[in-house]
UniProtKB/TrEMBL annotation:
HAMAP family, sorted: URO_D
Organism encoding this protein: Desulfuromusa kysingii
Molecular function terms from GO: uroporphyrinogen decarboxylase activity
Keyword entries, A-Z: Cytoplasm, Decarboxylase, Lyase, Porphyrin biosynthesis
Name of the protein this chain belongs to: Uroporphyrinogen decarboxylase
Upper lineage: Bacteria, Pseudomonadati, Thermodesulfobacteriota, Desulfuromonadia, Desulfuromonadales
Pfam families: URO-D
C-alpha cells in the first residue's frame, strides 16, 4: 500500500478523501509566482532552467492550495531543444526551423544522456523530493509524441496543425521516422525523471483530440503505447491526458496508462462506465468554473463527486490547466470543497 492518497487513487485503492491537484497549478494566477518570476527576470524558459526558482514555484501551490500532489515546473517542449531545435517563447512556443523534410528529421539528435542534456530537470526534481519528503508526492511529466511533433512540424501553436497533418497523410514514412525519434527521446526523458525521483508521470496529449478516432488509432496510439511500454513503471503510475479525447475512450484506454485524464466535455460517470474498474481517472471540472461564485464552485465539485460515486481510483482535477486570471481564493476554495465533501 502507498502512503499518499494521490498514489493510492492512481492504483485504484480506497482513500479517506479524494485527492486533488490542478494542472498548471504553479503559474500566473498566483501573485507569489509572479513575484518569483519578476525577482529573477528573464524569460519563461529561463525560469524553467533555474532549479532554485523552478522548485520554489512548484512548492507554492502546495503551501497555498493544500493540493495533494506537486508537479515539476517545466514545459513539455524543453527536451526538444537538445534534439537540435531552438526554442523561444514569444509568449507562446516558437521553433525557428520547423521539421518539414527528411533531412530535417535526419538532423534531429536523440541524446543518450537526458540527465546531462537537460541537467536542470533532475536538479529541480531532487530539490522538490527533499522539500516534499513525507508531505506530498511529486509528478514528473512530458508531452505525448504526437503533441510534441505538432509543435516541431508547425513551428508554433495552431488551431489545426495543417503542416503536421499534411506530412502525416501524404508521407507516412517521414511522419513515422519523426515519431520514432520523438518517442525514443520522450522515453529517455521520462525515465530520467523517474530515475531522479518522480513518483508518478503524466503524459500530456494536448492535441491528441484533433484527429478523428480512426486517425488517432493509426497515427497516435501506437507511439503512445510504445512510449508507455518503455517506461520504468515499477511502482510508478502513468497518467495519460488526451484533451478532446472523451469521444474515443475505448481507444485511449488501450494506451496502457494506469490513469486517464478527462476534460470537461465528457460526463465523468459515463466515462468510468466505458473505461471499467481497472483504470483510474483524473478530472474534470471546467476551468472557467473557477470564475464563478463560491457556492456555484461547491455545487460543481459535488456534481463531479456524485458522478464518480463511491468508485475508488479517482483524482479530482480541472479538465485542463487553470487559467491565469482565476482568483487564487477560488482555487483554494475548490480544493477545500473536494476534501470536505469527499471525507469519509
Amino acid at each position: 500500500m502507498t502512503e499518499y492518497n494521490f498514489l493510492k487513487a492512481c492504483w485504484g485503492q480506497s482513500v479517506d478523501q479524494v485527492p486533488v491537484w490542478l494542472m498548471r497549478q504553479a503559474g500566473r494566477y498566483l501573485p507569489q509566482y509572479k513575484a518569483v518570476r519578476a525577482q529573477g527576470g528573464g524569460t519563461f524558459l529561463d525560469l524553467c532552467k533555474d532549479p532554485a526558482r523552478a522548485a520554489e514555484v512548484s512548492i507554492q501551490p502546495i503551501d497555498i492550495l493544500n493540493a495533494d500532489a506537486a508537479i515539476l515546473f517545466s514545459d513539455i517542449l524543453t527536451p526538444i531543444e537538445p534534439m537540435g531545435m531552438k526554442l523561444d517563447f514569444v509568449p507562446g512556443p516558437v521553433f525557428e526551423n520547423p521539421v518539414r523534410t527528411s533531412a530535417d528529421v535526419d538532423a534531429l539528435v536523440v541524446p543518450e544522456d537526458m540527465a546531462a542534456a537537460v541537467s536542470y530537470v533532475p536538479a529541480i526534481i531532487k530539490r522538490l523530493r527533499l522539500a516534499f519528503a513525507g508531505r506530498v508526492p511529486l509528478i514528473g511529466f512530458g508531452g505525448a509524441p504526437f503533441t510534441l511533433a505538432c509543435y516541431m512540424v508547425e513551428g508554433k501553436g495552431s488551431k489545426d496543425f495543417a503542416s503536421l497533418k499534411q506530412m502525416m497523410y501524404s508521407d507516412f514514412p517521414l511522419y513515422d521516422a519523426l515519431m520514432q525519434k520523438v518517442t525514443e527521446m520522450d522515453r529517455r526523458y521520462l525515465n530520467m525523471q523517474i530515475d531522479s525521483g518522480a513518483q508518478a508521470i503524466q503524459i500530456f496529449d494536448t492535441w491528441g483530440g484533433i484527429l478523428a478516432p480512426h486517425d488517432y488509432e493509426r497515427y497516435i496510439l501506437p507511439y503512445v503505447k510504445l512510449l508507455i511500454d518503455g517506461l520504468n513503471r515499477d511502482g510508478i503510475p502513468v497518467i495519460y491526458f488526451v484533451k478532446g479525447g472523451g469521444g474515443m475512450l475505448d481507444l485511449v484506454k488501450q494506451s496502457g496508462a494506469d490513469v486517464l485524464g478527462l476534460d470537461w466535455h465528457v460526463n465523468l460517470g459515463k466515462a468510468r462506465d466505458i473505461l471499467g474498474p481497472d483504470i483510474a481517472v483524473q478530472g474534470n471540472l471546467d476551468p472557467t468554473v473557477l470564475y464563478a461564485p463560491k457556492d456555484y464552485i461547491e455545487k460543481e465539485v459535488q456534481r463531479i463527486l456524485d458522478e464518480n460515486g463511491d468508485r475508488p481510483g479517482f483524482i479530482f482535477n480541472l479538465g485542463h490547466g487553470i487559467l491565469p486570471t482565476v482568483p487564487p481564493e477560488n482555487a483554494i476554495h475548490m480544493v477545500e470543497c473536494v476534501h470536505r465533501l469527499s471525507q469519509k
